[in-house]
Amino acid sequence: MTLLLIAFQCSYAQFKIPEKPSVETSVYDYGNMLDEAEHKFLEEKLINYADSTSTQIVIITVNNLAGDDISMVSTKFGQQWGVGQEGQDNGIVILLSDWDREVDISTGYGIEYILTDRLAERVINQEMIPEFKNGDFFQGLDNGTTAIIEVLAGSYKPKNTFDYKGLVKYIPIALVILFMVFLAYGSYKYGSGSGGSGSGRSYSSGGSYTSGGSFGGGGGFSCGFGGGGFGAGGGSGGW
């Protein structure tokens, strides 16, 4: 009986995706986290972007997630509402939960190879969460959407988070270790009387963020949601 009650409570608490809106636009502030001017600014910004590229970025805020995983809820919004254009799957959902203090970026199938999971998390951690920590949800969403647009255009440059100042204090230790290694190597080389050469493997990574293609016009929000498909692409974070 207890197990049945727990199962019932869990199913009852599950977040329910609202019905697809009759008016399909770019911002749905169910969580009342934006004032009227902020709502209008973001809405117009994303409508203009969608009308020029057909890529739909939709912001959704909610009060809470009823215990559900934010990435799953965000993907469900995109899939059930059909954000993006059919055949292009170029929709993006940004879901922000007030009570849970979490944000998620979910990408349609046609976007996830450009706005990769790693880049989505960088946008969240570097552009959005610092503002959310200060209670400025509008600025975080504005920064985040601008960064996403730059990623899709191939012009986004993530902030360098490497702590060079913190590295300085380790330089003396590193020099001592290198000196000891040098001495040990010299002792081995001349002590054994043999030498040799080896081959190593080097790795390099690129730091360029360019899009492999572009999405043309012909969609936008004037035609509503076109039925784009969503998978598990994107990233999430909390503060």
Structural features:
elongated; 5-stranded mixed β-sheet; disordered N terminus; alpha/beta; single chain; 43% helix; 239 residues; Diaminopimelate Epimerase, Chain A, domain 1
Chart the SSEs and their pairings:
Layout: H1 2-13, E1 27-29, H2 36-53, E2 56-62, H3 70-81, E3 91-97, E4 102-108, H4 117-133, H5 137-153, H6 164-168, H7 171-192, E5 230-238
Description:
With 239 residues, this protein is an alpha/beta fold. 43% of the residues lie in helices and 14% in strands. The chain has 7 helices and 5 strands. The chain has a 5-stranded mixed β-sheet with strand order 1-2-3-4-5.
**What class, by secondary structure content?**
alpha/beta
Strand order of the largest sheet: 1-2-3-4-5
User: Architecture of the domain at 21-159 and 224-233 in CATH?
Assistant: Roll
Low-confidence stretches: 2-11, 194-218
The tally of strands reads 5
The CATH C-level name of the domain at 21-159 and 224-233 is: Alpha Beta
Give the terminus-to-terminus CA distance. Answer: 38 Å
Task: Give the overall silhouette.
Answer: elongated
Produce a short descriptive summary:
Residues 2-11 and 194-218 have low confidence and may be disordered.
